[in-house]
């Protein structure tokens, strides 16, 4: 049970639920689903809750990631719904996230709070696992899943959408897609030594890019890609993984 999929909007029906596992952490209690997908047991975490009721700024990211670690998870594929501020990535495209810009404001961002613990820092030279990214590209090609490209994820606080001027600023800073959930998730995974990759599904154009943002657009574009993405994740999991081709287990530095 060393593999997991974290899903936000639109990936709740990834397989048949075999068991539910409740994990207690010092940050709170988390319910995990253990899914049987083609005979493979995979941990599934619904990021926003089963009824999609937890807004992005109130998700208990530390409890979620610690629960996955305690469940024995070492590899995570995460799906993230994103808006595009890059003219080359249109709604419906799949974008592999390779870096991020953090514009969150009020979230706990680390497990390392000092006190009796030594000061620790985490290397973010490669925030997302290079091995999982490479394996995803290879498997997507074999499965005929078209990838729009790679990009920089801008994480905002939410739950509101961004203004047109904010989007223009993010573009100038090098952002390609915008979402509300990937930070601190990616940071916490790195602190725990978990291999983590995020795959974005472009659900809409960002504010001021083209037209208006509608819930119908978001739900429709994600639904169209959900099952194919999950299939690619599962094929990577089935072929096996190791940590020989990444540095995810050795990213912590103590001072």
Report what the structure shows:
By secondary structure, the chain is an alpha/beta fold. The protein has a single domain, classed as Rossmann fold, CATH 3.40.50.1580. Helix content is 27%, strand content 31%. The protein has 5 helices and 11 strands; from the N terminus they run E-E-E-E-H-E-E-E-H-E-H-E-H-E-H-E. It has helices at residues 61-70, 130-143, 164-172, 182-191, 215-239; strands at 3-7, 16-25, 28-37, 40-46, 75-84, 94-103, 120-122, 149-156, 177-179, 195-205, 252-254. The strands form 2 sheets. The protein has a 5-stranded mixed barrel. Strands 7-11 form a two-stranded antiparallel ribbon. Strand 3 and strand 4 form a beta hairpin. It is globular, with a radius of gyration of 17 Å.
Structural class: alpha/beta
* Mean model confidence by pLDDT: 89
CATH topology: Rossmann fold
Q: What's the overall geometry?
A: globular
Total discrete domains:
1
In CATH, what is the class? Alpha Beta
The CA-CA distance between the termini, in Å, is 33 Å
Tell me the total number of β-strands: 11
Give the full name of the CATH homologous superfamily.
Nucleoside phosphorylase domain
Spans of at least 5 consecutive residues whose pLDDT stays below 50 are: none
* Strand fraction: 25-35%
Side by side, the strands of the main sheet go 5-9-8-6-10
What value does the Rg take, in angstroms? 17 Å
Tally of contiguous helical segments:
5
What does the main sheet amount to?
5 strands, mixed, barrel
Helix content: 25-40%
Helix-strand sequence: EEEEHEEEHEHEHEHE
Using the 3D structure, state the CATH architecture.
3-Layer(aba) Sandwich
């Amino acid at each position: 049970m060393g593999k997991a999929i974290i899903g936000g909007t639109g990936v709740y029906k990834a397989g048949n639920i075999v068991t539910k596992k409740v994990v207690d952490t010092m940050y709170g209690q988390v319910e995990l689903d253990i899914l049987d997908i083609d005979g493979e047991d995979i941990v599934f975490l619904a990021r926003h809750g089963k009824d999609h009721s937890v807004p992005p700024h109130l998700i208990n990211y530390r409890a979620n990631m610690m629960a996955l670690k305690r469940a024995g998870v070492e590899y995570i594929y995460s799906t993230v719904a994103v808006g595009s501020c890059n003219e080359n990535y249109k709604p419906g495209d799949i974008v592999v996230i390779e870096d991020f810009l953090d514009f969150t404001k009020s979230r706990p961002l680390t497990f390392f709070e000092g006190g009796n613990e030594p000061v620790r820092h985490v290397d973010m030279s490669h925030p997302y696992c290079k091995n999982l990214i490479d394996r995803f590209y290879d498997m997507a090609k074999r499965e005929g899943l078209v990838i729009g490209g790679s990009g920089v994820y801008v994480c905002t606080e939410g739950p509101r959408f961004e203004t047109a001027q904010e989007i223009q600023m993010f573009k100038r800073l090098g952002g390609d897609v915008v979402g509300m959930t990937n930070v601190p998730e990616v940071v916490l995974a790195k602190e725990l030594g978990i291999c983590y990759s995020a795959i974005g599904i472009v659900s809409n154009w960002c504010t001021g890019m083209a037209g208006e943002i509608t819930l119908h657009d978001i739900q429709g574009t994600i639904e169209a890609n959900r099952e194919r993405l999950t299939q690619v994740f599962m094929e990577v999991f089935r072929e096996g993984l190791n940590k020989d081709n990444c540095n995810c287990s050795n990213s912590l530095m103590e001072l």
